[in-house]
Amino acid sequence: MELVTGATGYVGGKLIERLLAESRGVRAMARNPDLLEPREGVETMRGDVLSGEGVRAALDGCEVAYYLVHSMEAAGPGEDFSTRDRRAAENFASDAREAGVRRVVYLGGIAPAEAPPSPHLASRLEVERILLESAPQATALRASILIGAGSSSFRMLVRLVERLRLLPLPAWRTNRTQPIAERDAIEFLARTPAVAAAAGRSLDIAGPDVITYGAMVEQIAELMGVGRTPVSLGASLTPAASALVSAVTEQPLELVRPLMESLEHELLPRDASEAPLMYGIRSLPFDRAVERALARWEVAEKLGAR
């Protein structure tokens, strides 16, 4: 049995589909399992990693557990998302150890090589440390931007292209990253329990293309078939830019600001070839990943700029 936490989320839902395609036993855990679509072969359980309620029971009998929980909603008084992330990871790690879970798999974020990580990425790295220290056979996968119809980062970029004819690009537009297609990120997650060499390690997963954030936005506009004029700004302007992006995309500021802060440094994998060779995965190039994501987006929701 394999437990998927964060089962009502974007990545969790896609991973469950992938595991079911191989007829793997799946248990889905969520704070509100009533939000989960009933699926043959999926056992649902209520569990809350922040309070710890129900987590130990959900882990019983599981050999593999996927930890796909992030706290980015507004915090209560005296508490921020990093505090909640830490408490949730510690609760989960303790219960997984007691339940005898063989493999824990976590999806976090790539860290900048030559600068301190943003608070958002620093929290992801702390969760990674907690899980790896608690479960010796755990694997932490680090990814940059996921290119998929349900990815918060990708949706933010598409909404900006869709709704702004003039695209203000702050100083971080020249920073490089290596985004990964949704399909490939899910494949890495699904294959991890069977990859012995990945046990006890953190691995960076990425697509084949190194691209600047500015070029990423311009290529998305081109693939959407719309004309947009980039406007280069001389500073990062993250607080003001976050407020603008939040308003334009209609996304909560507490979600947008951490994502924007992560753009202020280059996010490149430590070894772009190691994980694909280890897993035998040939990742989609950026343009193919975007075309695929836009096509899936439009199945459920029309894009005004198309």
Order of helices and strands: EHEEHEHEHEEHEEEHEEHEHHHH
| Distance between the first and last residues' Cα | 43 Å
Helical residue percent? 40-55%
User: Can you summarize the main beta sheet?
Assistant: 7 strands, parallel
Do you know the CATH topology of the domain at 2-147 and 178-207 and 267-283?
A: Rossmann fold
Second rung of CATH, namely the architecture of the domain at 2-147 and 178-207 and 267-283: 3-Layer(aba) Sandwich
Strand order of the largest sheet: 3-2-1-4-5-6-11
What is the residue-averaged pLDDT? 89
Briefly, what CATH class of the domain at 2-147 and 178-207 and 267-283? Alpha Beta
Low-confidence stretches: none
Q: Name the shape in a single word.
A: globular
How large, in whole angstroms, is the Cα Rg? 19 Å
Helix/strand/pairing class, anyone?
A: alpha/beta
| CATH homologous superfamily descriptor of the domain at 2-147 and 178-207 and 267-283 | NAD(P)-binding Rossmann-like Domain
User: Would you report the number of β strands?
Assistant: 13
Number of helices: 11
Q: What percent strand? A: 15-25%
